[in-house]
Fold each of these.
Amino acid sequence: MSFRPLRQALEAGFACLLALSAPALAQDAAGPVKVGVLSDMSGPFADQAGTGSVVAAQLAAEDFAKEAGEIKVEIVSADHQNKPDVGLAVARKWLDQDSVSTIVDLPNSAVALAVANLMRERHRVALASSSLTSDLTGKACAPTTVQWVSDTWAQGSATARAIAERGGKSWYFLTVDYALGQALERDASAALKAAGGTVKGATKHPLNAGDFASPLLAAQGSGAQVLALANTGADMINAVKQAAEFGLMPDMRVAALFLQLSDIHALGLKAAQGLQFTSAFYWDRTDGTRAFAKRFAERMNGRMPTENHAGVYSATLAYLRGVRAAATVEGEKVLAAMREKPIEDPLFGTVTIRQDGRAVHDVFLFEVKTPAESKGAYDYYKLLATVPGDKAFRPMSEGGCPLVK
């Protein structure tokens, strides 16, 4: 009996396998590394993220080019319209047709959760730099997801603890009815109750609600000391303005559980003064943040970056360095390279990436300045306290992430 036909068949099969695998290997090794900025370009988060996030990613690509060798980077962008189905459609097209290697930004937690799950299936990294739901490092964690800036646990817990310590122990929540708001209310409520506080009531509203008369009157009638805004962007701005019009302050404190520089700019210091909140980034905090802000402002008609913009820059740069170190865009391998040692970041300081995907760094308790304290446009924050990274974020053992042993 001759074994030649069998050997020839095996050799032919092996050659076929090599041929089938060659395009994927070639795509991984050649051509530009494409970074997709998936953002809200025209809705309630457009000022927090939007065009500024694209500029931030471009700045990261330019800085990486100085050290990249032969690796080329291309930035593409799209508007997810705050709709998970739209975000998924864009992400699928980018992965299937455009060879996009990673997706960054992702404001709107519902969109982020959907896209992160797709990226897990495709073994590509989701850089959820502008997404707040703590589920991304909890029950929905993935070996290909990094949550870079903050989350609902950090925002809600730190703010609730700080205000409860200052006597504000009874709260009424005004909550945007999707993943972000639900998680903010849940995490802030848990911290408030742990500090001896109580929740007097809550009202949910749709994204881009506009009119908050009914829930604000309900909050006023609840007897709560604090109106907690578990929303952000245009909804938060409108709620603060209308709360002032209804005369809720100063009898009630207003706690913004997710406040950004662009929101304060839109509100004006007269309306926003005295608000306390936590943030991981402020443009005027260090020499590194000021240098980045100057470059950003030159391309954004004088606008200073929000923490979302800073997160896009830092996450994109760290990812590109991870690709270089891993010599691949395969998500699990890139994240392994990013976790190898602490990242010394000019905007967020020392950053470590945990097994659950949480990027850990210091966060800060700020208060909005009065008009008299401000020296000019965007001089809005005064630092009250630093919250170390190991205290700022939920302990990994408590998040329910299935990746954590």
Amino acid sequence: MQKELIRPMFHIMKEKKNTRLEEMEYLHLPDRKFFQWCQQQYSLNKGVYNTIDNWFYEYGIIHILNRRINLLAFLEFATSPEQEAGKTKFIKFGNGGLTKKLQEFIAR
């Protein structure tokens, strides 16, 4: 079992600068509403969301708050320049690309 990780995500914080990640309101939403928030922010489908969440759980990040923080940090990490520029709507991983990207994220 891996030690729980918390990655800094200050660039996605849209609340007060001094707010701790654990205190950010959207992290405490019920699962369905948190997914909808992620979907709105990252154009993410439910299957990819569930796969990412499960991957972090299997990796050893058991605490839901830590998993959500890592999930959001991963989504920022995986966002392509084309998506940021508005040229593409969805995060694209391709066949086997999601697992590879998750491994890259953990390795950094």
Amino acid sequence: MFVESVKTPGIAHLSYLIGSDGEACVIDPQLDTQHYLTLAGKHECRITTIIETHRNEDFISGAVALANQTGADIYHGKYADEPIEYARKAGNGDKFEIGKWTLEVIATPGHTKDSICVLAIDNEQDGQPIGVFTGDTLFVSEVGRTDFYPEEMEKMAGQLYDSLQTLANLGDDIIVYPAHGAGSVCGSGMAEREFTTIGIEKRQNPGYQCTSKKAFIERKLKENHYIAPYFSKMEQSNVTGMDTPLPAVACQKLAQDAQSAWQKRAERPGVLIDVRSHAQFRDCHYPGSLNLPGGLLSAYGGWFLDYSTPIALVADSHQQATESAEQLWRMGYQQISGYLTMVPKPDTIEAYQRQHVNAVTADKVDERIRAPRANWQLLDVRKQEEVENNEFDQAKHIYLGYLPEMCHQLDKSRHYTLACGSGKRATVAASYLLAQGFENVDVFIGSMQAWQSYQQGT
């Protein structure tokens, strides 16, 4: 009997393979279907069942692609907003026999109306519940967000409270297998640890510390989450299903003539995404390119990209480009032309100014705050809760994801210093503003982390 977890980088998604005696079930699969096939082969199991705990908003489900490869049956919660075309309905109390495991569905609405959890019961231990796959209902040190139904937020928060009490009654020793870890857009306070128990969460999770249902609802209504524009595309894709597994992605190096077309900004046939490190981008980049390295590509790509525009990547290597293409593919961005390497070094001062982003330290920012020039502005691109916890003096706040729709409020003749928590998102923001024609932009290196250290030392 085994449980295997599969973590998807970028979106911090966790999916699971559970099985025994030649049978296995996958819970909340990604498009990276080869992971599950490889693990099933290792355990000499056939994947017979696929269960989705809810309709996801931040990535395309791999259920259809995996079912087409294995012949497995797909199940989804009964109360989806739209009928899930590729899945059978699973309701409270439904059970699935997977070797020596019994998997029992628990209806847990709140995050979404169709949310379910899956209780894993060991039939060799007198039907003892061992663990529960909690989807986006319960995480490590966090609970699901309840803002996807703006007109019913109070109702959804109340349902989530009831669902959490249902889970609490399963027993303190039950192992919790959540669908996301730290860094996910599905919650802001998740711990780095990816495993927990019901008992630990009852003692430590803020969602369980509310003294009443009313207090819990009030807490949830005060939360501030962000809904990226691409979520609507994901929701629709996860109604109809996508049958192409991720290994179909192949990011090829662009030929020299194609590279030349992408390098010439006036002739560029789409958008150029630089997935190299922030430091590399600040040092030298293609003018007009957008810096989105690592997990920031998944976290913020959906705010800046559309589905009709071709994408090329600037990467250090084939592996880096392919991993980035995979992140985009999971989000439904399939028009990926390929990748470029070798950013040409500037040969004139004018070219250097176009290809370089200046960085400033805390002492320089302090100097500017103390004696601000009329045309200077500190621009904070952090999330609202970060700003509320630690505010920059005299800063204007625009959440990074809102820059595409709000940058028209900024004056291109002004000098902007971009700030965030560490300087990473500030570099992303600087790259976007530069691509939009802002000429006097720099990045506060270290940002809030550096600012706090500087304040303590002065």
